[in-house]
Amino acid sequence: MPFALLKHALRRPPAAEAYWPQPGELGQSYDVVIIGAGGHGLAAAYYLAREHGIKRVAVLDKGYLGGGNTGRNTTIIRANYLTPEGVAFYKESVELFRTLSAELDLNLMYSERGHLTLAHTDAAVRTARWRAEVNQHLGVDSSLVDPDEIARICPQLNLSRAVRYPILGALYHPPGAIARHDAVAWGYARAAARLGVELHPQTEVTGLVIERGRVSAVETSRGRIQAGKVLQAVAGSSSLVAGMAGLKLPIRTVPLQACVSQPLKPFLDTIIVSGSLHVYVSQSARGELVMGGSTDPYPLYATRSSLEFKEGLMGPMLELFPFLAEVKVLRQWAGMADMTPDFSPVMGLTPIENYFIDAGWGTWGFKATPVSGKRMAECVATGRQPALLEPFALERFERVELVGEKGAASVGH
Amino acid sequence: MKIMTCPLNGPRNIAEFVCAGEVKAMPDPAACSDEEWAGYLFLEANPAGLIVEWWLHAPTSYWFIAKRDTVTEQIVATYTVEQFFAQARAAA
Ligand SMILES: Cc1cc2nc3c(=O)[nH]c(=O)nc-3n(C[C@H](O)[C@H](O)[C@H](O)COP(=O)(O)OP(=O)(O)OC[C@H]3O[C@@H](n4cnc5c(N)ncnc54)[C@H](O)[C@@H]3O)c2cc1C
Predict the structure, then answer these.
(1) Chain B: residue whose CA lies nearest to A307
(2) Which pLDDT belongs to residue A13?
(3) Model confidence at A312: pLDDT above 90
(4) What is A29-75+182-251+342-408's CATH topology?
């Protein structure tokens, strides 16, 4: 072994850089208290401090930072939604993601792979064409492609017609990307902490103090804190926390499961989604195939895994990639998805003064982390609903003005 | 495999059933406000714990009511629709 190499082995390793200070005592009062230190809560804290100069901010989490759905998702980022409201919103998020590594000074391993939504029925082809038209109109790069083009984009796919559900076409979205999900949470947490935001893991919110229709304090497992404003960003626990504020939400909490295979040599660039077969797959930088499907068939506050999920996934997966038959599943897990009836989020003002909500992220909220953080920060700082969030207000349900995004948000993630 | 006991068909694989959401009291559509009606349509209690829901046994198109725990995933009881509402009326 060359000596130059050996001497490194003898040296003491450099001390690891702490991303944020050890959590200290909980303060008595803050300008803004954020419930939930997932990507959304941490991003909101960062933009509050950076763009609005509000630095007396505490982010509380009952567990550890990024341990909720932020640490459990399959990291697909895309803007090829169906409704103009949705497309405009997710487009801004993709734009923010593109420069986020530089902004946060952390490699988020943001990797544009191209995204194919396969269509196996005439109805699915029609939806793909509809999405392509809406996307192009709003400046999002999407097009309808036929099987020959699919073969050029992703030659690994089984395009044989001798299968149960042959591939008839696809929606192709070149900017579709994946990223390192944990790094997104850590990057926002570190950048927020540097601006003076306090991070308090292991601090569960157990109640809210509301007087004359206005929130004034938060009860936690570590005592009561006064709060000028409060933002809830708790994904699967949205109904429970909103319940503390006396609010009822249009949300059902349903598990969403995923799994990864053993690592393989890189062979799959494209992110592959099939809405008709209810499966999707991409290959991570580590070589693992990251796979998932639809949500579980009934509500649960649990993150258990089930055999039914795996069975339902593997049949269609082997139809798309028959050569994976011998590959083993390495891990499987689940998160609790906060599902809304229109597959769109619930964001912004609530009937309670100074109480703000960022919820209804279901199976599609990782890609929205930057835009949600940025726009919720604006909403909290100004006390007004930003135009981009207008369509996603909680009160849309009273007006029966839903944002029907099911055709683009389910399974596609 | 999880087993659910259907009041009509007995214990069956839960994959044969469809969960159709919380049992809610329907306001009078002619008399209630739009807001109440929207609340009935869209808002959910979504409890962590006991929940009472409509279920369908799909192969026999049979509707019934189940009480289950959304934290432990236990099915506590299943009822025919008649049984459930008779009990609810008696309790009221
Ligand atoms: C398996 C799976 C795959 C997914 N795939 C994708 C995908 O490919 N692309 C995509 O865009 N989205 C995907 N999603 C959805 C995405 O993960 C979520 O929408 C997103 O991460 C939500 O982020 P968040 O910060 O709002 O919530 P979370 O990251 O869940 O953070 C909420 C935090 O709130 C905390 N909390 C809850 N209750 C309390 C309380 N009372 N007091 C204090 N803290 C509390 C929790 O501990 C948690 O850390 C997927 C989800 C799952 C489960």
Answers:
(1) B1
(2) 80
(3) yes
(4) FAD/NAD(P)-binding domain (3.50.50)
Q: Which CATH number fits domain A115-176+253-339: 3.30.9.10, 3.90.1150.10, 1.10.3720.10, 3.30.420.310?
A: 3.30.9.10
* ipTM (interface predicted TM): 0.96
Q: Residue A369 is encoded by which pair of tokens? A: 């982390």
Residue A413 pLDDT: 64
pTM (two decimals): 0.96
Q: Where are the domains of chain A?
A: 29-75+182-251+342-408, 115-176+253-339
pLDDT of residue A412: 60
CA distance B76 to chain A (A): 14
Q: Which residues contact A105 (CB under 8 A, 6 or more apart)?
A: A187, A191
Which amino acid is located at A187 in the chain? G
Full strand arrangement of the beta sheet holding B62-69? B17-22, B50-57, B62-69, B75-79
pLDDT of residue A17: 85
Q: At what angle do helices A369-382 and A181-194 cross, to 10 degrees?
A: 30
Beta-carbon count within 10 A of B30 CB: 5
**What residues are in contact with ligand 1 under a 6 Å CB criterion?**
A 35-41, 60-63, 67-70, 72-76, 204-205, 233-235, 237, 241, 256, 258, 292, 335, 337, 361, 363-367, 413
Give the E-state strand segments of chain B in sequence order. Answer: 3-6, 10-13, 17-22, 50-57, 62-69, 75-79
Q: pLDDT tens-digit profile of A32-90?
A: 999 999 999 999 999 999 999 998 999 999 999 999 999 999 999 999 999 999 999 99
Distance A163 CA to ligand 1 centre (A): 36
Distance from CA of B88 to the nearest CA of A (A): 23
CB of A248 within 8 Å of any CB in chain B?
A: yes
Using only C-alpha atoms, what is the Rg of chain B?
15
Alpha-carbon distance of A246 to A232, in angstroms, equals: 13
pLDDT reading at A411 higher than 90: no
